Model the fold of this input.
Amino acid sequence: IARQLFEGGMVTSGETNATVRETVLSGQRSAQEAIAQEEVPRQYHDLLRHYFGRLEKIAESSGENDAVSQD
Done:
């Protein structure tokens, strides 16, 4: 995820939160597809769901904080 964020060069503060959210959601979709297609061992399914769920909450709260600070 971090590599995806910075491959395109520097991002501005406003772009950062949107980019993070998009990257997290993309990773979450990829993980869900991998689970559905049984590409990931069953023992890691809950771990992946928890990991991306936490990232999504962090990204959402970061976006809310950014929106408040811009007001």
Summary: The CA atoms of residues 33 and 39 lie 8 Å apart. The chain has a mean pLDDT of 78. Residues 45-70 form the longest helix (26 residues).
